[in-house]
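Hey L., structure's done. Input below.
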Amino acid sequence: MNRTLHWFVAESPRPRRVATWAGAPWLAVATVCLGAFLGQFDASVVTLALPALRDDFGASPEWVSLAYLLTLAAFVAPIGKWSDRRGRKLVYLYGFVVFTGASVACALSRDLDVLIAFRVVQALGAAMLQANSVALVAAAVPRDRVRAALGVQATAQALGLALGPTVGGLLVEAFGWQWVFLVNVPVGVVALVAGHFLLPRTRERGSGPVDGIAVVLLATATTALLLVLSGANPLLLVLALPAGAGYVWREPLVRRVKGGLFGATCGYLVLFGPLVLVPFTSDRGPLATGLLLTALPVGFALGAALPWRVPRGGAALSTVACGVLAWHVHPIALVALGLGLGLFIPANNAAVLGALPRGDAGSGGGLVNLARALGTALGVAVPLFVHAHWGPRVAFGTLAVIVLMIICTPIGDKLPRLRPRVPPRQ
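Output:
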């Protein structure tokens, strides 16, 4: 193969000086954190641009966000499985190329349909990043440090989520909506260069091919479900439920880690629920409400960074915090909720990876991020539905019940005790 062509289609090794340095695993984790930060930052920063997009284009911009979410949910798991065969580092780096290029194209768009089309491309790049981030972290560090490394990655996600609204508002007000996309460019370029030199190559390759029928079933199920959650005809559930069941039947890895995926979906649902509920229950102004909400990702970042292995204790703390929020929205309760979820979610995600062969780490990472995407969508739809019909106390109480389900069901009780089914690390 031509050496130039080989550079584009094969994973490059790290420089020997980097690979043999004792701190090399954490350099790789730091590189993955750039992608984790960028993904959550983009998801939250774009929402601040929607009013400006509506004024600029004279049309409803809801598909700017919806097209991104639908594409990400449909492709993150299949891309993870494909990455297990092609190379996770290679796909991850090309994810930065696609995401950064699409961000520039979004900023230069002068037509709403063109902008939506490039948001789909941007979502494909995000899927390439998210499908491999968890797997790259797991491959870079020793097994006994995977939970801690995933906690660092989750901290980067929380930081992106926390900074997004504030930075987005400042950018739109000072420079225009185009800058919520252009701000991705310097981070993407730095991450691409860092990833080339600091990320390890894929050692274990997945053996199973990507199932085309499973991809179609997953895309059908997630698209129909997310459209229903966005206000479309509820009859689409008739399409979503059998398609989802068919996908689970076609994908044996889903059945192996169904408990962990259930826990991840519930965890992210409860994490995002207060972000939409608190503005409806707070009598503060927009700025004060935004500052109040930062308590949640701050608590999450703290919990994710702690070395404690108490996922069930974290879920219990989150249940209590939701109960307190049902009576009074207080920053300490939001910090406690974030702290509990920070203790639970990284440990749960590490358990999912530990239950899969190392060669299927990309598939596992894709499934975890699929659960995150669905949990995020449900975290917006479910609390708002309950709030509209029964009020904020019942809505927060519902979040408490959802966390309690993780603790009380046999599946949730076994999650922290899952044992790795992988060959010895080489």
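DSSP finds 21 helices and no strands in the chain. Residues 410-426 have pLDDT under 50 and may be disordered.

-- N.
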